[in-house]
Amino acid sequence: MTETRHSLELSEQLCFSLYTAQRLVTAAYRPILDALGLTYSQYVAMLVLWESSPISTGELGEQLGLDYGTVTPLVKRLEAAGLITREKHPDDQRSVRLRLTDAGADLRKRAEGVPDTIAEVMALQTEEFTILKDSLEHLSDNVAQRLS
């Protein structure tokens, strides 16, 4: 079996392609999310909460792939914005449950156009979108397995 040698040319680096795409896609989200009063991190947290409220802080962090030290300030900002409340779990006082407020639930309606707007910016056909998403998930799974 022949070992593949990878080039050090910037144009050949997958990491740089991922970095560039991530930076540009996040920049495309910025004006759309600014209109909603959200950062990208807050938006993805709200996506989880719109699907799963109430949810524990730990569960939110797990779904987003974030540690407790990153989730806590994010949750505090969402609470300060009046989008969620934090409450002690009735069965475990150490656990904090996050619950959407009426304003947080109402924001979902205003955010419904975000995926279609971003899809227009990405200009991918449905099949291209699916292939790319599946490939990125496969890549993430592979790297996560090797890091754990």
TrEMBL record:
<dbReference type="InterPro" id="IPR000835">
    <property type="entry name" value="HTH_MarR-typ"/>
</dbReference>
<dbReference type="InterPro" id="IPR036388">
    <property type="entry name" value="WH-like_DNA-bd_sf"/>
</dbReference>
<keyword id="KW-0805">Transcription regulation</keyword>
<keyword id="KW-0804">Transcription</keyword>
<dbReference type="GO" id="GO:0003677">
    <property type="term" value="F:DNA binding"/>
</dbReference>
<keyword id="KW-0963">Cytoplasm</keyword>
<dbReference type="InterPro" id="IPR036390">
    <property type="entry name" value="WH_DNA-bd_sf"/>
</dbReference>
<dbReference type="GO" id="GO:0005737">
    <property type="term" value="C:cytoplasm"/>
</dbReference>
<dbReference type="InterPro" id="IPR011991">
    <property type="entry name" value="ArsR-like_HTH"/>
</dbReference>
<keyword id="KW-0238">DNA-binding</keyword>
<dbReference type="Pfam" id="PF01047">
    <property type="entry name" value="MarR"/>
</dbReference>
<dbReference type="GO" id="GO:0003700">
    <property type="term" value="F:DNA-binding transcription factor activity"/>
</dbReference>
<protein>
    <submittedName>
        <fullName>MarR family transcriptional regulator</fullName>
    </submittedName>
</protein>
<dbReference type="InterPro" id="IPR039422">
    <property type="entry name" value="MarR/SlyA-like"/>
</dbReference>
<feature type="domain" description="HTH marR-type">
    <location>
        <begin position="11"/>
        <end position="141"/>
    </location>
</feature>
<dbReference type="GO" id="GO:0006950">
    <property type="term" value="P:response to stress"/>
</dbReference>
